[in-house]
Protein 1
Amino acid sequence: MNKTCLLIPVYDHPDCLGELIRGLSVTGLHCLLVNDGSAAHCSQLMRDIAGELPWVSLVERARNGGKGAAVKTGMAEAVRLGYTHVLQVDADGQHELADIPRLLALSAEHPLAVISGEPYFTGAPKLRYYGRYMTHIWVWINTLSMDIRDSMCGFRVYPLQSSLQVIRSNRVGDHMDFDPEILVRLHWVGVPVIPLRTLVSYPIDGISHFRGFWDNLLISWMHTRLFFGMLLRLPRLLKRRWGNNG
């Protein structure tokens, strides 16, 4: 039986956090906030929230390490607390919280799978939309499949045992490269990735910590590493694909 908690990596999103926590309160799930080296105001806000709400815990990283690093920290803490799954929600208010019951229901039905949001957008900048699509193409190449419909959406349920095993066995990215890389590596070891259509909104005044040149460089390097990793696994991936089509 799944034991799931919420996991929110946070880096300087003080304006969104209060509303997000209020929206999550109806889920009945324990919530892990991971402070990824936020500024003083946002850090204090998280401490206040965790101090006031018994269903919220705070894990603090000494310095900013990136979204992927924060998610890894949160996963390790979730296991320490006895959870089997985490439901990752981004801190910027883009995700449709009303879809959480659907994510949980799919995860309960498929406890060994990753349940991953497949977004449709409101207000998405064109450049980011096309950038996402290029990443999807590389993910399809690197998995020799279209099983992963969207590799960038951070609204997903992870099974912790397989996810942490992959993280411990590989050098998975610490920044914006984490979301697509972890899905590819989980797919390689046979973990199903089940999509769920969900609305993702880009607020006009929203704060993005995507670091243009540097994150695009990291993502490009990630795709290169994964491509050569795919070549090493090519016989096994082809055998799996032929077997699924047989």
Protein 2
Amino acid sequence: MKKILVPVDFSTPSENALKVAADLAKKNNAQVCVLHVIELAETLFGSEQFNVDDEQIVFFMKMAKKRFAKFMEKDFLKEIDYKDMVDIGPTSKYISEYAKKENVDMIVMGSTGVSGLEEVLIGSNTEKIVRTSPVPVLVVKKKMEDLSIKQVVFASDFDLESLKAYENAKKFADSFDAQLKLLYVNLPGNQFYSTKEIHEQMRKFLHEAEVELNEENVMIYNDYTIQLGVINGANTLKADLIAMPTHGRRGLSHFFNGSIGEDVVNHSTLPVITFKI
């Protein structure tokens, strides 16, 4: 891990994310790229390409840079190699483009989550990045004074296409000397599988990963939805972090409607790291 991208909006959640990114950077001798995107209403500049000479846009840029400089006055950044950037554009799109341009290894974002109509109609930039990012996205929900991760839960349906995500999650857990536990969520109705069937699925999956099935590190959690099962199962296991693969809008196997990764990120109080497959 050589480059970590942290999009910030000067909020407390983005400050929490920046602190986690700084801790990861120290641990990995990595550079932190801190990005603030000004998302202005289209009526301010028209539908054509941004006019950087426009007085209003120049004003917003100057205000943002001034606020950015103040935001970056953090003690935890003093020994960190970082660079900052302010630009204008659609936030989630620009974050994705910047991540690709800078060839970052991970994106760290803060989030408070949303619910109800806001979740359905608006969503959040964090969810959009989780859905589209080709690199791992670590979403931080609250302040973490010490980046201590001892127990990681990898939630999946253990289809072979999730194998790469599992391997990346294991590397991340190993970097903290953390224990990695496997979580399968069993649903009622025609999506119910017996313990024997689930263990056989996990055994085939781990055989490809050249890892033996250790039933002590496996949890089968019964719940009404995948999202609830992942969150409740992780809390039952007293996990410090949830790791999971995401397909974006395609869903995972029988995870049918929508992106489970987005739903878990939105509602979990634990930090969540997602791996695109």
Protein 3
Amino acid sequence: MSTDSDRRAFVQFALNEGVLRFGSFVTKSGRTSPYFFNAGLFNSGASVGRLSQFYAQALVNSNIQFDMLFGPAYKGIPLATATSVALANHPALPGRDIPFAYNRKEAKDHGEGGVLVGAPLKGRVVIIDDVITAGTSVRESVDIIRGAGAEPAAVLIAMDRMERAGSEGALSPHSAVQEVEQRYGLPVVSIASLTDILALLEGNAEFAAYQADVLAYRNRYGIV
């Protein structure tokens, strides 16, 4: 988890980088959302470097015991790589050099072969991704990690949308994050959440006009 100041700083950082935007956006689920978070727009050395520091700090603050990182293809690959670097330079982990691994979407049939790249999967493994939408990448990652004889320790994400899945008349009682926690018995650590976005809107006159729409969206689809 992140401290309040870390969470506020991250939301402001995402806003500055154009990763967090307000307006009208159709999501993958077909909903019209008044905000959009696209971590793929962290696409420069400076922005990914700063992003990895937020990931590293959130993981350190969580006090979760871990041995390595796993980044599911594709977005998780640069996230695991960069966060491993940030953890190696973190003052709370002197002498630690955190290994990482990731998977390919398709097995390689030459060279070393297989679907895994990087350090051997062993010990307690943190799965790192941008968001959890349907939980598909988490399920695949858990299967890969356990199949290698290692143990998933947690899931680390950038933003928790705190949003229920399902169709309009049959919304799930839980968010995607909550369902992952319940299904796999894993803690999900997020740098920030929808609550932090709303806190930004409350204190930012430039974007205050979007506050009512974001609140209405949360009331309609959000968890209590």
Protein 4
Amino acid sequence: MSALKAVLWDMDGTLVDTEPYWIAAEYRLVEAWGGEWTQEDAHRLIGNPLLVSAEYIREHGGVDLPPPQIVDLLLADVIRDCRDAVPWRPGARELLAELSAARVPCALVTMSYAELARAVVEQLPTATFATLVTGDELEHGKPHPEAYLTAAARLGVAPADTVAIEDSLPGVASAEAAGCVVLSVPSHVPIPPAPTRTLRDTLVGVDLPWLAALLGR
């Protein structure tokens, strides 16, 4: 198991099932502006940088606001919902606890902004994550590899010695481009199989030896 140096976690849809919160916020915002929104629209945004999603909402939802303001409105809604109840994904907290006990460092790598990431992480034991990489500090969002390269560099490990856990195709593409070993746990949008990734339905039953074995495959 010594080959596994770190585990890099996506947040929305992977650690927590916040996608319904985001989708509900999108519907509320678009409807307030008299626009129309569909599940197909919502699913197109999963895993994207927030400003990219905001530009899509502006163009397709008729929300005539600058993209940063759209992001602020959506974030406020999702943060409020998370403070009411954090919807943890099955098996996520159990795996985090095992990794923490074994002193395997973890990074949170999310396109959400730091305010939301902190609202989620505050519900976990202190120092569960060694670092947070958030969308508001990056020049390039997923699927660009910057997010995962940044996380690996902060932890002082090579991407090839890490497992990245992701639920979206942009996130998977980002982690693969960075050179991470990728575990895909799709949530709301399917991820096609490929030789570069391992797919599972949930994190239930995933433990440290299982993750470590991924590096040898």
